[in-house]
Amino acid sequence: MKSFSLTICILLLAAGSSFSQKVDIKKAFKHADQQTLVMLKEIEKTKATATKKDLVTPRTLENGHLRMVASKDWTSGFFPGELWFLYEYTGKQIWLDQAKAFTKLIEPEQFNGKTHDMGFKIYCSVGTGYRITKDKHYREVIIKSAKTLATRFNPKTGVILSWDHSRDKWVNPVIIDNMMNLELLFEATALTGDSSFYKIAVSHANTTIKNHFRPDYSSYHVVDYDPNTGAVLKKQTHQGYSHESAWSRGQAWALYGYTMCYRFTKDPAYLNQAEHIAAFMLKHKNMPADLVPYYDFDAPNIPDEPRDVSAAAVTASALYELGSYSKEKNMYYQKADVMLNSMATKYASPAGKNKGFILVSSTGSKPSESEVDVPLSYADYYYLEALLRYKALKR
User: Per the domain annotation, does 141 fall within a domain?
Assistant: First the structure.
């Protein structure tokens, strides 16, 4: 009987390890609130001493100093989005006022057709503001931004051109990150009834499924196309370990992107794609126990490789949404809970430190030794979004 009881206890403990971890939302947002107050002060200090006068939002830390960027930078919209999330959770007037002020600084980007990052810049800031306030002005900015982004679509390739730079390396590069910008197009169709935006988004998503993924559902970072024929010229992984490796944030962008595509289209192909990408990540032999991935699943010196908290933040947020559509919802929710708890406890910035960034230990581009083991604004953004999605769950 004693042996039987011991066996039962062991089984219960094993089962308990897979139960959802409770996330302390109140504590996490209190920390985010306090850190962002620090950040606002640091922004003013940095702007006061900067030689560049077009700096609008924080991106990361460089040698311990706050690095701010102009509105044209692909990361410029994340901090305004964080402010909207803080207002959404707390209802505090300070966050509404700050969100409006910082969002206004990003709005000129609606006319910038030289980049594919319109979704990151405009939708994370203006789009989040519109979702919360339904401000008609924000609606018009979203629509104009979608029209600008649509000019980068090439019917011959079926995809939206990503980078205009590095023409010595690529002719017509399209990166997996671009999946995230489709949300702006889908939303524009929802707002206007103009299906042209929807059709571009679907074409891009379908072509990316066809050309970006390996049989195991890992993704290349960059696919280069012949702009005249649509033929694939090369497939590479620019920010991961090697061309054939699985860059963790790239997998996260793909997971989030196809989950979002399913939200707007209800096409089962997108749900299937998202679930396969999730399986690749969650079942990978190199995924750590805390589910905060290394910068690349195939990095050669694991476990002595930098983590990428931004990849965990994007993935956790995506899994909460994916769970709401999937038969495997409990498993996705449980995995996301582990990620969220890990970020809130192991990767949270000490109070008052890191110039007010909320999280630490993200990796921008390890091959370039750029932004390695530092805070990043987009990690903070998707972390707060994941917290809000956790709070909204009905289990």
Answer: yes
Question: To which H or E segment does residue 307 belong?
Answer: none
Distance CA 310, CA 297 (A): 14
Which listed residue (54, 73, 97, 117) is catalytic? Answer: 117
Sheet containing 222-225: order of strands? 173-175, 222-225, 232-236
177 catalytic? Reply is yes
Q: How far is CA 393 from CA 17, 28, 324, in A?
A: 21, 17, 8
Q: Work out the mean pLDDT of the chain and round it to a whole number.
A: 94
pLDDT tens across 81-96, in order? 999 999 999 999 999 9
Bridge partners, residue 66, by sequence: 61
Q: Find the angle CA(127)-CA(195)-CA(112) to the nearest 5 degrees.
A: 45
Counting the structural domains of the chain, the total is 1
Q: Token digits for 282? A: 């969650």
Spatial contact of 351 and 35, defined as CB atoms under 8 Å apart: yes
- Which of 177, 224, 296, 380 does the annotation list as catalytic? 177
What's the maximum distance between 2 C-alpha atoms anywhere in the chain? 76
Which range of residues forms the domain containing residue 78?
Answer: 54-151
pTM above 0.85, yes or no: yes
361 alpha carbon, distance to own chain's centre:
15
Q: Which contiguous run of DSSP H or E holds residue 253?
A: helix 248-265
Long-range contacts of 64-69 (CB under 8 A, 24+ apart): 65/355, 66/42, 66/355, 68/43
CA 136, CA 268: separation in Å to the nearest integer? 33
Question: Tens digits of per-residue pLDDT, 183-239?
Answer: 999 999 999 999 999 999 999 999 999 999 999 999 999 999 999 999 999 999 999
168 given a catalytic annotation: no
Judge whether residue 18 has pLDDT over 60. Answer: no
Q: Does a structural domain hold residue 25?
A: no
Decide if 120 is inside a domain. Answer: yes
